[in-house]
Amino acid sequence: MQDILTAPFLVEMVRTATNMYNHGWDERNGGNISLLLGEEEVAEYLDVGAVIREIPTGFEAPALDGKYFLVTGTGKYFKNIQYDPARNLGVIHVSDGGRTARLLWGFTDGGSFTSELPAHLMSHAARLAVSPGNRVIMHCHPSNLLAMTYIHDLDSCSFTRTLWQMCTECIMVFPDGVNVLPWMLCGTNEIGAATAKQMESARLVVWAQHGIYGAGADLDETFGLIETAEKAAEIYMKIAHLPWKNTITDDALRQLARRFQLTPREGFLE
Ligand code: 13P
Ligand code: ZN
């Protein structure tokens, strides 16, 4: 059995969490990540039958029964993950129709998975249904996206169009747009179900006055998705209070879509 600390999935998780912290997206224990792992991948490093503890999840996720995830721990600081991955991260085996998480590794201080596990697992199920290669759900608190939810309409169409107008690359990176949820109580099954519903039509879901969720095939892609949206929000926050003399028109956005053979979210361009 190989040392899990050398596993590419673990190394990549630690690097990503550290990078997110360095971008200022994950103050204190803010943010959480879950990465879907294959059983063969896990079995190279862990005895999948050796369960450390069973932790009830408080919800059902039948579509994910039997699946393995590397997840961040609740209350854990992203800045510390690099110094003690085994304390701050855990590998769980979802069982009992999603009602139980069998801990196979990590959370060495007796800790548990993120309080946002409902939003993560329900979003994994929603994304896997439309995109079978999806492996990552990532949540964080980037300042400019968060700031934007105080001063911009929260309608998903107008929020997306504004972000698309902020940098030419945006419509290429997230042609499916950004869905926006109004403020809701975090850590609940309700916000989990609402997020998963929004994940059916977009890989980015903003939680007003809280943060953002991203979904993708791997950690790099998901990080890049959030990075691009946050960059656009940063530009918006720099110019929102100034008179605009120019913008990227809907016609220009349509030209980009044609040139790069993308299908922008139906109904989001005028
Ligand atoms: P956890 O520490 O439970 O992951 O919560 C952080 C967070 O961002 C809540 O939305
Ligand atoms: Zn949060």
CATH architectural group of the largest domain? 3-Layer(aba) Sandwich
Largest sheet: 9 strands, mixed
**Number of contiguous helices:** 11
CATH class of the largest domain: Alpha Beta
Chain-averaged pLDDT: 98
The CATH superfamily of the largest domain is Class II aldolase/adducin N-terminal domain
User: Can you tell me the CATH topology of the largest domain?
Assistant: L-fuculose-1-phosphate Aldolase
User: How many beta-strand runs?
Assistant: 9
Describe this structure in words.
The chain is an alpha+beta fold and 270 residues long. Helix content is 40%, strand content 18%. The chain is built from eleven helices and nine strands. It has helices spanning 8-22, 39-43, 78-81, 85-88, 117-130, 143-151, 156-166, 170-173, 189-199, 219-239, 250-259; strands at residues 32-37, 53-56, 68-72, 89-95, 100-106, 136-140, 178-181, 204-207, 211-216. Helix 5 runs parallel beside helix 9 (189-199) and helix 7 packs across helix 10. The longest helix is centred in the last third of the chain and has 21 residues, at 219-239. The protein is elongated, with a radius of gyration of 19 Å. The structure holds 1,3-dihydroxyacetonephosphate and zinc ion. Zinc ion (ZN) binds next to loops.
List keywords for this structure.
single chain; 270 residues; alpha+beta; L-fuculose-1-phosphate Aldolase; 2 domains; nine-stranded mixed β-sheet; 11 helices; 40% helix; binds 1,3-dihydroxyacetonephosphate; binds zinc ion
